[in-house]
């Protein structure tokens, strides 16, 4: 492309011709197309990132949830049984003779025929925090000895001692099938007559002097 230019130099009008490269327009057009293409690519990347974020959020919200189709099992819900007694001697830590004690056993069942979890809490009421501290050292050793003789590990039942003022509490918990029959003894159950249903557990504990209440009671 040619351009005409006139310049006056020393009183003489000088005419000059200017030429614009033919490729100028093409390069500009290519640059504009490239910019448009890059812009579209950036928008696509942003959109994909947005979709990925949405998917991650949905998966996080759904974690731990299970969707089940069909109607089996039907009308099954968790039931509970709680049994308590006072001044029961808990043989696994009987070297301490407290002024009084409380024993509470809490069970969760799948329906009424399958035990899901069981928790025993035995609280000994002692005269002072100092006496409770001295008693804790003794029962720690006794419990460890009993577990070992039963062929069980010390952490078998997530056992925990808690001391508050003069009260010393032993807590045992299990939510899985016992590895050995000797484990039943720690929840005051005779291994030769193992219960399976909620009502069978209730009968065993009530025969030992416990008072029981259940979620199925009317």
What overall form do the CA principal axes indicate? elongated
Structural class: alpha+beta
**Strand count:** 8
Strand content: 25-35%
Report the major sheet. Answer: 6 strands, antiparallel
- Name the poorly predicted regions: 64-72
| DSSP helical segment count | 3
Overview of the structural elements:
- By secondary structure, the protein is α+β, with helices and mostly antiparallel strands.
- The protein has helices at residues 23-62, 129-149, 198-206, and strands spanning 2-9, 12-19, 78-86, 100-110, 114-125, 160-164, 167-174, 211-214.
- The chain has a 6-stranded antiparallel sheet with strand order 6-7-5-4-3-8.
- Strand 6 and strand 7 (167-174) form a beta hairpin.
- The longest helix has 40 residues, at 23-62.
- It is elongated and about 100 Å long.
- It starts with a strand and ends with a strand.
- 15% of the residues are buried.
- Mean pLDDT is 83; it is low at 64-72.
Put the structure in a nutshell:
The protein is an alpha+beta fold and 218 residues long. 32% of the residues lie in helices and 30% in strands.
List keywords for this structure.
218 residues; single chain; alpha+beta; elongated; 8 strands
Q: What secondary-structure arrangement, pairings included, does this model have?
A:
Layout (H helix, E strand, L loop, with lengths): L1 E8 L2 E8 L3 H40 L15 E9 L13 E11 L3 E12 L3 H21 L10 E5 L2 E8 L23 H9 L4 E4 L4
Antiparallel strand pairs: 1-2, 3-4, 3-8, 4-5, 5-7, 6-7
């Amino acid at each position: 492309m040619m351009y005409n230019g006139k310049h006056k130099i020393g009183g003489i009008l000088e005419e000059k011709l200017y030429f614009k490269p033919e490729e100028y327009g093409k390069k500009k057009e290519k640059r504009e197309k490239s910019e448009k293409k890059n812009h579209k690519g950036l928008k696509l990347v942003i959109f994909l990132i947005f979709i990925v974020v949405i998917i991650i959020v949905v998966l996080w919200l759904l974690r731990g949830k299970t969707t089940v189709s069909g109607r089996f099992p039907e009308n099954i819900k968790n039931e509970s049984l709680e049994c308590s007694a006072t001044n029961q001697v808990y043989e696994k830590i009987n070297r301490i003779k407290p002024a009084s004690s409380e024993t509470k056993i809490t069970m969760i069942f799948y329906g009424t025929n399958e035990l899901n979890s069981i928790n025993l809490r035995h609280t000994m009421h002692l005269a002072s925090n100092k006496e409770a501290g001295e008693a804790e050292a003794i029962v720690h050793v006794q419990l460890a000895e009993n577990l070992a003789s039963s062929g069980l590990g010390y952490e078998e039942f997530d056992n925990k001692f808690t001391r508050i003022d003069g009260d010393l509490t032993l807590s045992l918990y299990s939510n899985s099938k016992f590895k050995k029959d000797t484990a039943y003894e720690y929840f005051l159950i005779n291994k030769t007559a193992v219960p399976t249903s909620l009502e069978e557990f209730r009968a065993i504990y009530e025969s030992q002097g416990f008072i029981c209440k259940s979620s199925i009671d009317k």
